[in-house]
Amino acid sequence: MNAVVETYDLEKTYFLESVVVRALRGVTFRVDEGDFVALMGPSGSGKSTLLNQLGCLDRPTRGDYFLAGRNVSQMDDDQLSDIRSKYLGFIFQSYNLLPQYTVVENIQVPLFYQNARLDDRTHRRCVRLAEMVGLGDRLDHRPMQLSGGQQQRVAIARALVNRPQVILADEPTGNLDSRTSDDIMQMLVKLNDAGKTIIMVTHENDIAAWAKRVVRMRDGHVETDVRNIERTQPSHEANEEFLQALSEILAEEEAEAAA
Ligand SMILES: Nc1ncnc2c1ncn2[C@@H]1O[C@H](COP(=O)(O)OP(=O)(O)OP(=O)(O)O)[C@@H](O)[C@H]1O
Ligand SMILES: [Mg+2]
Questions:
Q1: In CATH, what number is assigned to the domain containing residue 18?
Q2: 10 Å Cβ neighbour count for 250?
Q3: What are the tens digits of pLDDT across the range 102-127?
């Protein structure tokens, strides 16, 4: 198996006036291609800090981080944003959609950072991603005009637009009721089945139960790291259209990449 994410003795220390917080105290951690990891642990244990490091949103104080084989720890800001837009998709608890933009425009946002041409083809691709997450009849709605679950589905489509290898999610179901959470988790499982590596922070055992592996943090360390033997399985009927659309989109991407 190829490692997509590898950290060695990663440390992150925050210095705030007289307060020193050692948020990560030597995290050595590896995620192989195709894995689905739930990152758990008490509040303040360093989950979001680790996810920010993995997401190249911040640099470690010490230690090394390799993303797709490239050492990220020494990169400057431009290189970080470049590698971020090449390999990573993000899903957040609060959706982080831009309120003045429509569904389709929000899905396009990661492409701005890639200096990608926003031509008819990319527009069509964004529409197809919106349709895939079941929002084909909401293309021109703005976030305020959508339910929480719908907003999170826009965020999933947005996370896929740059064809990332790895999806990072910080409590993606944190603001949703349990039924809507299930829908979102079904989609994440299917994305994982389709080959996307997923690393997801969650507080809830029910949500972690969908993952293949559960990593628990405590005081800036990895405390336990176990395979989930009895994962929650997605139901077959659910999201049939999603799966169909997803495999079509991924097949097209492969064909384009090969051309
Ligand atoms: N930007 C920052 N500046 C200073 N300290 C920070 C910063 N971000 C996080 N910390 C501190 O680092 C520690 C780890 O925080 P982190 O946000 O990673 O925890 P978490 O495990 O995600 O918690 P939660 O479950 O509450 O989201 C905490 O003690 C926090 O106060
Ligand atoms: Mg957090």
A1: 3.40.50.300
A2: 16
A3: 999 999 999 887 777 778 888 999 99
pTM: 0.93
The number of distinct structural domains making up the chain is 1
The amino acid present at 104, given as its one-letter code, is V
* All residues with CB under 5 Å from ion ligand 2: 48
Residue numbers of the domain that contains 11: 3-258
Q: Which atom of ligand 1 is nearest to the CA of 203?
A: 25
Q: What is the residue-averaged pLDDT of the chain?
A: 92
Check pocket membership of 49 for ligand 1, CB cut-off 6 A.
yes
Regarding the beta carbon of 45 and ligand 1, being less than 6 Å apart is answered: yes
Q: 147-202 pLDDT, tens per residue?
A: 999 999 999 999 999 999 999 999 999 888 888 898 889 989 989 998 999 999 99
DSSP H helices in 71-119: 77-87, 103-112
Distance CA 86, CA 198 (A): 15
**End-to-end Cα distance, the chain:** 26
For residue 35 the two structure tokens come to 């894995």
Could you tell me which residues come within 8 angstroms of residue 41 by beta carbon, excluding any fewer than 6 positions away?
47, 216, 217, 218, 223
Rounded Cα–Cα distance for residues 105 and 5 (Å):
30
Q: Name the closest-CA residue to atom 18, ligand 1.
A: 46
